[in-house]
Amino acid sequence: MRTLISTIICASLTTAGFSQVTFTKDIAPIIYNNCTTCHRPNEIGPFPMTNYEEVQPWAQSIKYATSIRYMPPWKADPHYSRFIGERALTDEQIALIAEWVDNDAPYGNSAEEPDLPEFPSGSQIGTPDMVLHFSESFAHQGGSKDEYRVFVFPTGLLEDKQISTIELRPGNRKVLHHALFAYDVTGTARAMDEADPEYGYDGFGGFGIDEAMANMFPGYVPGQKPVPYPHGLGQILPAGADLLMQAHYGPSPIETVDSSTINVFFKKEPVERQVQNLIFLPIDPYLTGDLFVIAPNTVKTFHTQFTTPIKVSVFAIWPHAHLLNKSYEVFAVHPNGDTTNMIRIPDWDFNWQGVYNFKKFIVLEPGTTVYANVTYDNTINNPSNPNSPPKWVSWGEKTTDEMLFMPINFVTYKTGDENIVFEEGTVGTEDAHVRFVNHYLSPVNPNPASDKAYVNYILEHADHITLRVLDVKGTVITNLAVDEWNAAGAHVSELDLNQYPVGNYFVQMLGTNFIQSQKLVVSR
Questions:
Q1: In order of start, what are the domains of the chain with their CATH numbers?
Q2: pTM of the predicted model as reported, rounded to 2 decimal places
Q3: Mean local confidence (pLDDT), 114-142
Q4: Which residue of 244, 290, 367, 459 has the fewest CB atoms within a 10 Å radius of its CB?
């Protein structure tokens, strides 16, 4: 009898061994849905995670990074408030990864492995409506210094467009730390660009245009997946406007170059309400108490607040700071004394910051005060402190300076906002049919030009193409092609400039769900 029982126990253990956690059955769904979006070719992840052969060598590292919740990167406290697109793994998923690794990371049955999602190419979220390219590569000076640069992108838009979101595809992820976007309709930014001998113009301190801060669009930080504005909400990009990109290039010991791409997404449905921004800064009337100065060897918390005079519906928040920051906590106190948690980041990480989109509107009655308590650690105990020994630090745009900068996205209140729950995703990686259209309009050559110029463009697939020249007011001067059917491949069109007065123009190409523009300077 004892022998029979022992045999049954051994058989049970053997059977249990075959039902152990495997990559194909248990781990692949976690990896493909939470990690591969960044860990794949041409994305931010330092190594790909698109199959077992790529994942298995990193098994121990994956176990450690997930066990301490360093990966996937999600810094907001889920017990404080909830957001769209949360990347945090559940306790059960973390335990499965640990068990899999501890059992030598077995592959499993190939029939149980899910298909790899068909991620969009050239975008994290879908097919952009307008693609803007650097007209030339920008040379970052090196010398281990920060550099801020504003680049001007002519849109050539003939009518106002409602923006859903903007996505930056960085050309050099090693040095491009973050970027802000705005627009200019005055031509001031374009003039500043033309006056600077290098590509773009100095952006230290902002866009160099006072109105630009009021015209800001969603920005970029590494690892962030853009989230389109909710249904019926948008932000105007006016006809003839120049899109501005203020790029922060982090310190680099050597000279390096960047040439990035901007994907612009238009709203597909009618827009009923315009998105507005409230930007918290450590200045009057927001800051209470001391000036924004952090002494050496101190841990200091700054308190900011703002009381809304009208009823608004908040849907997104973007806390931003540098290396000394330790934590953010933002909450709203309503006139009746109730408190609504907005966001808490208890363990700040300079490398992972971005826009957080709420799952539903946060409605703020008139007289509601939003508080932001932000703590900085300027001691030797802060491993991210860039100064050893610690130094006096105040507001500034260098990485070694510090910031308290927090845009809040809102719209004026509309009856029923408190009952609206936002969808987790509108267009996302789950849509296997979404694909980036990889047409490309090259910079005009030569440029500047006097009598002739050549317009080169490449089509990924056959398309109806309109090619035209516009003046700086957005007026069409010449149609080189109107809805002409072009085959896939390279094309060139010659432009006779003798009919053009000296000045600045734009060459614009339009295809199916596609717009690109390049600058043209006519000189004699």
A1: 2-112 (no CATH), 130-272 (2.60.120.310), 277-413 (2.60.120.230), 440-522 (2.60.40.1930)
A2: 0.69
A3: 87
A4: 290
